[in-house]
UniProtKB/TrEMBL annotation:
Signal peptide: none annotated. It comes from Alkalibacillus salilacus. Its EC number is 3.6.1.13. This is ADP-ribose pyrophosphatase. Coiled coil: none annotated. CDD domains: NUDIX_ADPRase_Nudt5_UGPPase_Nudt14. One of its GO terms (molecular function) is ADP-ribose diphosphatase activity.
Length: 168
């Protein structure tokens, strides 16, 4: 018998406490998408305000998957909304379990080096986002120094190195 207790059930998110007192989240619509984009020798990231940390965090552009939308469509839409850049071809790098001890969220990670930089951001009311470009070598150095420490970025770069989209 499961002795877990639902503490909150609101807007598709459940906060659950298990019989050992550990708390975790179960989210309906738990899939999100991000894109690692590269133009020449630069990666395109975003700096986004994240309230839990009270600061801007360097991240990959991305977001949620809407009802009836494919992962690829969602990735391209989110990339356009957050950066103002329009993707052409994207490559699937894999799925990342962001914090499986805490949540059932799954992030699908893509790579592109085919995009146009001619459009305006289409941010949602709650979003404060700055497009941030960084040289590939500088990015790898900042990951090594733990200055860039976002799990999605680290996973995307590792997968893009393994799959041959990026080289050191």
């Amino acid at each position: 018998m499961d002795h877990s207790k639902v503490i909150l059930d609101e807007n598709g998110t459940k906060i659950i406490k298990d019989k050992h007192g550990r708390t975790y989240f179960s989210i309906t619509g738990n899939e999100s998408v991000v894109i690692l984009a590269r133009k020449d020798d630069d990666f395109v990231f975003i700096k986004q305000w994240r309230k839990p940390f009270g600061s801007f965090i360097v991240q990959l552009p991305g977001g949620g998957v809407e009802q009836g939308e494919s992962l690829e469509e969602a990735a391209k839409r989110e990339f356009l909304e957050e950066t103002g850049f329009k993707c052409d071809k994207i490559h699937y790098l894999g799925e990342l379990l962001v914090a499986p001890w805490r949540t059932n969220e799954i992030t699908h990670v893509f790579y592109t080096d085919e995009f146009e930089e001619q459009f305006n951001q289409q941010l949602e009311a709650h979003e404060t986002i700055e497009v941030y470009k960084i040289n590939v070598e500088e990015c790898l150095k900042k990951i090594d120094e733990n200055i860039i420490n976002d799990s999605e970025i680290s996973f995307a770069i590792l997968q893009s190195l393994i799959k041959g989209f990026v080289s050191k």
